[in-house]
Amino acid sequence: MTEDVLKEALEALSPEELARLKEEENREWRESLEYVLRVEGFARVEELLRLLDEFLYLAGYTPANRLSTPYLNTIPKEKEPPYPGDLDLERRIANILRWNAAMMVARANKKADGIGGHISTYASIAELYEVGFNHFFRGPEAGLDRDLVFFQGHSSPGIYARAFLEGRLSEADLENFRREVHPPVPGGRGLSSYPHPWLMPDFWEFPTVSMGLGPIQAIYQARFMRYLEDRGLKPRSTAKVWAFLGDGEHDEPETVGALHLAAREGLDNLIFVVNANLQRLDGPVRGNSKIIQELERLYRGAGWWVIKMVWGSAWDRLLAKDQEGHLLRRFEALVDGESQRYAAFGAKELRERFFNTPELKRLIEGMTDEELDELTRSRGGHDLVKIHAAYKAAVEHRGSPVVILARTIKGYGMGPTAMAKNVAHQVKKLTEEDLKEARSFLGIPIPEERLSELPYYHPGPDSPEVKYLLERRKALGGFVPERRVRFTGGLGQLEGYLEVPGEEFFQEFYEGTGGREISTTMAFVRILAKLLRHPKIGKLIVPIVPDEARTFGMEALIAQVGIYSPQGQLYIPVDAGTLTAYKESKEGQILEEGITEAGAMADFIAAGTAYAHWGISTIPFLITYSMFGLQRIGDLVWAAADQRAKGFILGATAGRTTLEGEGLQHQDGQSQVYALAAPNLLVYDPAFAHELAVILEDGLRRMYQKGEDVFYYLTIENENYPHPPMPGPREKVKEGILKGLYLFRPGEGEGPRVQLLGSGPILPQAAKAQELLKGYGVVADVWSATSYKALYYDAIEAERERRLLGKARRPYVAEVLEGHEGPVVAASDYLKALPNLIRGYLDRPFCALGTDGFGRSDTREALRDFFEVDARHIAYAALVLLAEEGQVPAKVLAKARKELGLELRETPPHRR
User: Fold this and answer.
1) 155 versus 494: which is more confidently predicted?
2) Nearest Cα to 587, choosing from 226, 192, 284, 261?
3) What Rg do the C-alpha atoms of the chain give, in angstroms?
4) How confident is the model at residue 488 (pLDDT cuts 50, 70, 90)?
5) Contact assessment for residue 391 and residue 147, using Cβ atoms and an 8 Å cutoff
6) DSSP state letters, 349-369
7) Comparing C-alpha atoms, which of 253, 268, 252, 254 is closest to residue 303?
8) 745: which strand partners?
9) Beta strands in 664-770 (DSSP E)
10) Model-level pTM greater than 0.85?
11) Mean pLDDT for the chain?
12) What digits encode the pLDDT tens for the residues 702-749?
């Protein structure tokens, strides 16, 4: 019987007959399997199941519950769609770009030996990009359907080479690759080493070269697109997030740490493309196994749809010829270290080592060395037809994110020095032999006598190649990458900027708490709650918290605005009916990420850059446990700085001595110092609600009204104490808060004078020290040091102006202390390095008190005594400085030490 006759007979069965037939089939399959299990054993059962899997896979089917599939292409040849472009022209374009990218790096290192750069990564990924550029990546003119593309960082020379053909970069620009400070070629701009939006703000969108940061950011960008859509801030669109990453990059935890989130939330707007060139910096990624198979298990296990592109079209004929599966079983036995040899050494190696059985030798009977050479290079990631089939399937897939595992060759086409060799990543220069071979392989029409010049090749603005790629980009919505800051209006936006609340909105927080004790965290949460209700910007605020909202007293906000969940809330929470019920909603405003500071920071970046990607000025407030903030996610904070993110990061439960009882791993005395690193990160350690209000008001104005590319880090604490009203004169105090220092409480009376600087929770200790010093006849002025970073930056700027520009401006810290006599004691709940930043700019004795060392569990009082930052130590430090100046008798020191109960030890806290 034919297949059609059998199908007709099946369709003719009644439901009862069909049920009986299936029952009989099931019985026969079970009995056959039982026979094999009892007689031949479990190993034979496993073999049969594997053969069945192979059969299904070769027929184009992949069982959903398999973590690993045969080492073949997911999309078989017969299911590949027709190619929509000019294959010959696109291959030629890719090869021109390969050549120019290599010349760019080689020329840069010829002019300045050691300037660096990478040739081999782009050589391996060129076709993967070109299919995207010519048929998939939608540019900014596509509006809200535009795609976000994360480029593999080391491939940047190839992206510049393409922009050169597009007319966006000149040859002079290419000559200035990695020469941004003093570009050697006049008329050209310096090109950054890797994708850097800070340095090329009209070109790059995402910094990706720090391994793992591109993938995790891509996931949260895709999820933030859905967040914007579900909350009605952005119309639904077909936009995709594409992320190109390396196989070796998967060893970074950030690369794989959020894969489950993408699958759990069904992010079918996300496509990963893994450039599996099998090599990392020093050698094979997995020399003794197969990285593609390993990654397939990883992604399928996490819930992604996996498309493998292992073999190029040259293998299709052999696969069709191999009816008994010998080639497939040889593929399964192959390891990446072996595979690398074939790409490096060619036909002879392949003939002798790969086709190593009689059955395999018969498959290649009659094949020439040239044909076998083509086999060694024929990998899925270099085959335009197979790449297009994979991309098309990925774009059309629904219900889950997609990863494309593309097998490529590192240094493809770059000659014997680089191609598939362990040194490929480090190659910056090409030998004469390399140049000749690359020119021949890539088909670049440059005469041999000019090769030593390392010449670029441009086919001309009217050439078929240039016309084609420009037509394709026009059809897809313009150039990619391109960073175009756009604001679309609406939701309180005026000419691109927000109508942010002014002083009247924050007025109530200037008035103090009337003796009631609260923490700066409580003060912040109240301000945030009010901002969420603001008619103009309330909807744009994005609270972000990594599973610590209750720790920070934010329970009421969960009930007020809800936690975002694309599924809504499919259950009744156990605390339903209470004022602080746990509320998940598709329109929820809070991004509650679970225990992942890296994920929360990736959220912050997505929300903080939406103004540039979508023209929507969302305002992120990331509230995190400060000890697990900048210390843990400093690399992502740096990435936020690079891509000009805006928003507020709140380091809650901050301070070494404020968080009593928690101990060494939880007490933060260093985040304020870490925050010095990012130049555009403004840093504050407020002590009171009025300081917080002034800083937040200023931040909203600077970032969202003036459009400054800055973001903020504020440390807030959980210690309760009364918050006084803002002292006067108000405008001068506000200026001082923002500049980093203002007079909080002047001293009264006559006697030796001293200046006490406190910040955050240590400011009340300085105020208590002021009272203690009265008992020794000393008058102290108390200052609130809200930002040592602000004071430091102002001071180094003043110093530079004096040194280079001949200006006589004094640093603000020296200027504001003028007229306030006496030595300075600066006490902080952070490392002494922080207040010591200003020591050199003050012409008077100076003592920094801080919390250098490991934290430990105890009460605040005990901790502050241990680290020598409480009121008693502040007062005693002041007396010592005065005694050294001869303003206080030595006997007063002995008296004070006894009365203050100071038991000083020889070993400092940081050595204990």
Assistant:
1) 155
2) 226
3) 33
4) very low
5) no
6) HIIIIIS-SHHHHHHTTT--H
7) 268
8) 782
9) 681-684, 711-715, 721-722, 742-745, 753-758
10) yes
11) 93
12) 999 999 999 999 999 999 999 999 999 999 999 999 999 999 999 999
